Amino acid sequence: MTRHYLRGEAQARFTAARIDAIRSIGDLAQQQGCEFIVVCGDVFETNQLSRQTIGRALEALAAVPVPVYLLPGNHDPLEPVTIYRSPQFVRDCPPHVHVLTSSDPVTVREGVELISAPWSGKHPDTDLVGAAVSSALAGPRMPSLGQPVPDVCAQGPGSDLVRIVVGHGAVDVLDPDRANPASIALAPLERALADGHIHYVALGDRHSRTSVGDSGAVWYSGAPEVTDFREHFPGDVLVVDLGPGAAPVVTPHHVGRWVYRTMHREINNATDVAALARDLAGQPDKDRTVLRLALRGALGVADRAALAELLEEQGDVFACLSLWERHTSLRTHADGSELAELGLGGFLGAAAEEMHQQAQGEPVPAGDHALDLAELTEDDDPLAWEFSAEAPPDAQSATDALALLYRFSQEVTR
């Protein structure tokens, strides 16, 4: 998985962490005495990946000490160019790693069965999970979903069989698109759980750990490594204890190492800038932290320059440090005494005076030193400038330019 805001080696470490998560899951499975692992779709980000990524994933899977069952999802469906039929995957896939390629029930061992719903394309037009469960339960042993269970079936040889449904996609009660024909219908699944036809529903697609419905037996495990700020309880896997006639016991375990964090601060003076500096310095595991700042307030030229320098320095040690543009509103007010301290002369002094006049809302006389001011943008880079020849000079651009000039002048003095 790539993230455009991770620059340089941070993206490489983010990629490596996703491979490391496979090994962590295998270690946890062994520690907890798990019999097997299911991965509920989107094992891979896309069906077009480098040989290196596929090879490293298969090497990590080879080290997992229990059987692993992989479900194709919307990112890696069983389309003609699927990664699961590529020569490299077929050749190098470890023997204990199994791809769930059809809705036919798969026997894990005697008494345990998987009912899976793999994706064959990116845009299914039906509830794949519901169809798979209905098909599996429509045989001579069991009726279709929602139908009463005859006594002979409930008492028959299949009564001790544990069925685990493995699916991918949005459950209808959580899908914002109420007309989506591919939404997974929750009510029939909960009826089948209550009737004892199935015993647990393992779902993928949501990156946040989520329990769905009232049964306690329908879960999204979430992504084993965080991928976005919007996720709740990411970085977990679920250890599930199952047996016939008993409710599942579901225990989350955290395996993720990366963190996405948002920090809101009011910044109005040097004391506030210093407090932010202490907060940033105190953040743990900066090399694995993606931090966005929502800053509001008004600063003098010197304090704005100090803030810019702080963000630049800390940006070098965080995996990513950025300003949250939609929630950041920082104004800069110009104080002539701050510029006087710099003792600028010649062209720089004249330019500073013009910027100061513009910052105070005074008209700037045309002449040899008239400036075309740039606009400072509050994007991922706290010192990113976007020049627009058509944009007229304005007070805020002038104060931002003064802050940058102040900072550069201070650096030269040092």
UniProtKB/TrEMBL annotation:
Gene3D superfamilies: 3.60.21.10. Residues 26-93 form the Calcineurin-like phosphoesterase domain. SUPFAM superfamilies: Metallo-dependent phosphatases. It holds the Pfam family Metallophos. It comes from the Bacteria. Keywords: Exonuclease, Hydrolase, Nuclease. The keyword Hydrolase applies. One of its GO terms (molecular function) is exonuclease activity. This is Exonuclease SbcCD subunit D. It comes from Ornithinimicrobium ciconiae.
